Amino acid sequence: MAQSLSNVNISSGSATLSGQTATFFPGVLQLDGRLTPTLSVQQQLVLASSRTALIRIRFTNTDAQDAPVSMSFGSGALLQAGGAFAYATSERRLELASPLARAKCELLFSPDDSPKVEISADKRRYTAQFQPLTVPGNDAWTVYFTISVVFNDTEWEKEQPEIDRMFFRPDSLFDSNEDRW
Amino acid sequence: MQLARFSLLLPLLLSCVNAALWDWPNVLNVRNQPSSQGDLSVNAHTDLGAWHGFALPTNPSSFGFVGPFVHGAGNVS
Fold this sequence. Notes:
By secondary structure, chain A is of the alpha+beta class. In chain A, about 20% of the residues lie in helices and about 50% in strands.
């Protein structure tokens, strides 16, 4: 059964995600959840180009105390169902090649806060584990990543500078998407 | 008479202009759980001429978008 290429696992201390909701707004896919009464998380996806989806995960802490967060991405069971996948990893980047199309997943953190991510993969699944994060009290913390679907190396070479531009001002792309829709 | 009609329509027109996309949740159903990689019966959100799209999870405990789903090919994941 096919699932998600990028299922997000989040916890804060002993608290796990609860109360998840999934909403489709015109031009935006949105997931919301809550870790504690004062710590919420929102994940939004927009198509930022014809090849790349831009995803924003934002933690909002309404408590005065800092909140520790553990976060990882994983492919779940879907790669098992999909059979053999080729993969390559580097710091902040995971590349998958499927029999149907090649999907490239690239991770990048907020420029002002750069915890490392450790990516491990085999032919059936992958995990991207973030270093422990801290959401400052009465503040928010945001991370962005992209998922690109390309069919050959030429497309990927053309898309790479576009992705660099997306990460340079990611919030403006969400704003322009909202304006366009 | 025309002024009266315009006065009646103006609030409606302004409400349309001011409408934000956040005022239109779940107008389309894009919750999907493809049964396999080759399952083409997926309602997915796509945009900007992309050949792929994503969907919302049907599993309430999932916190990831379903996909990418490639038109004419199936699910990458």
